[in-house]
Write a structure and sequence with these properties.
Radius of gyration: 30 Å
Shape: globular
Order of helices and strands: HHHHHHHHHHHEHEEHHHHHEEEEEEEE
Number of helices: 17
Number of strands: 11
Strand order of the largest sheet: 7-6-10-9-8-11
Structural class: alpha+beta
Oligomer: single chain
Largest sheet: 6 strands, mixed
Helix content: 40-55%
Amino acid sequence: MDAVPDRKLFLGGRLKRLRRELSLTQTAMAADLGVSPSYLNHIERNQRPVSAQLLLRLADTYDVDLRTLGQSGGPASEAELAEAFADPIFQGLAVPRHEIIQLAEDQPAAADALLRLYRAFADRRTRDRAETDALGGRDDDSPADWVREYVQTRRNHFPELDALGEALSEAIDADSPGEAFETRARARLLGRHGLTVRTLPAEVMVEWTRRYDPHRKRLLLSETLGASSRAFAVAYQLALAEHDGELTALANAAGAPDETTRRLLKISLTNTLAAAVLMPYAAFQRTAEETAYDIARLQARFGVGFEQAAHRLTTLSRPTARGVPFFLMRVDQAGNISKRFASSAFPFSRFGGACPRWRLHSAFRTPGRIVTQIIETPDGSRWFTLARTVDRQGHDAFTEGQDLAIGLGCELKHAHRLTYARGIDLAAPDVTPIGPACRLCHRHPCAERAAPPVDRPLAVDDWAKSISPWPFAGPAD
């Protein structure tokens, strides 16, 4: 028999399960093993470790395979339980790790039952959301969902914030003409609000890229921020310092369902105002038209990043100076969508990711390069799109750069206004049909399908294999 490692083993839960499987009392098992009942009780409660000698006696007395006894957990592992308890439905319970471990170790059947119930609930929740989306309805919103929907009902256009942004931008220019934006904005923060800006090492800022200290009136920025992100952070703080009252009033008037949602909306509105200060509406819209919406030129002119310029393009809906009506989507390499904005009626799905046939995802293969594509949505609409990777704001030990992709697009009828469409036959273009999220999409067959549609029955046929991993029949009864 292999030697047992000389280390402390706390196997109370597994020893207790073994005893119950053998239908033994503590007294009976203690007698079999030649130990006192109190000693066995301490072991089962993990107050004493299991010695090597006791393990050998267990193996000899009950013909136990020590390898199975030493296996951690059962069907429900600690990691799976921790993931389940992290769901917002358990918000406020704060189940500590030691209780999760104890549940997995001491009550494996109950833990497995809990996981099965949670998985069934999570699957049903996902299906309900997808069905709600398919019917054009709405489900219970998280704060982020509510804010996203509110911004979309405004078509991502807030004329009152554009007006405030233009006025503040002109005031900053008048204060210190000729200087870079960040220099001018810092000077105004200090001169008018007594607020200083400091850039600190990442080790000091830890998880924060921007943090305001109201007691010392200091805006602290992480060194991980690039120049455009740093300028935006200063613009954000200046927007709050100058127009906190107006931003609060706008957020209050939106009718958010709770305080968390209202505060998240205010952050979104402040971001909008900061962008309007950095990229004043009239100047930005005029430059966009003059350069045929060349994002690189917009970046250079206004000192902003690719994502900042692309996002601003989705807000150009002033009746007297409209821009091309763009939509924007931001995804990570796992397909998670973190931004959806549109000044047009692009058919976003509320839940799930983007269609894998859209080259938004393939932008990760060519980091930093713009990829164009003409797509057709199920309603027959055609869209000119471009995609490019960008760096995530700030970096941590887990990011490698270029780990987000920005998708920007407009209806095909506007594509002739874009520099990116030059040389493309817009009259007879190559078109890629796409759908919404797979659970809502009825396109068939599709080799890229990741899940069957929620409102179609699967076509299970053991005599044939489709190119689609999830072939389905016609409309459900």
